[in-house]
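Re: the request from the purification team.
They wanted to know what the chain is likely to look like in 3D before they choose a buffer screen. I agreed to run a prediction and write the result into the notebook, where they can find it.
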Amino acid sequence: MQPKWLEWAQKLQAIAQNGLTFSENPYDLERFEAIQAIAAEIMATHTNIEYSYILDLFARDVGYATPKVDVRGAVFRDDTILLVKERADGCWTLPGGWADIGFSPSEVVVKEIYEESGYHARAVKLLAVYDRDRQGHPPFPHYIYKLFFLCELVGGSPSPSIETEAVGFFPEDGIPELSIGRVTSAQITRLFEHYHCPDLPTDFD
């Protein structure tokens, strides 16, 4: 579970964002901006992220506050799983990223796999829908749902991208250092369990 300060900051940001979306009274708008600033200050105090960056991130998120969606693809080959090495932190993760407007979740994961790894894949099953804050990831300003799809390799060849610097398949007992903001070792273990037991139902929090 995530620390209480993160839960409080996320809830304050949601209240502020909803208030700024639906309020018209200038005094109320001023109060909601103050609440948003407090949420950003809480985040900055407990992380290494600059206050101004967090506040700008919050300010650019408009409309009714809802969780963001992160989509990841689990592609297996001969009892190994496809991972990509992130340029941002030099660690490894499942290919994937934010869900894009205009694409279904399965279309997003197929697109992300190709863009980040060079491989063509086909989404065949939704394996898990997780609340990021309940999965052991480090704190993050936004509230996020994570979708993991089992994907079938259909072609292509390894090709790094502007976001990734290496591509590889790894056995369960040889997983490299993971980018835990994106995927955890427990999630990788669970995905292998799904791979070995195809009849398992979809996981969810």
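For the purification team: The chain has a mean pLDDT of 95.
Please add any questions underneath this entry.
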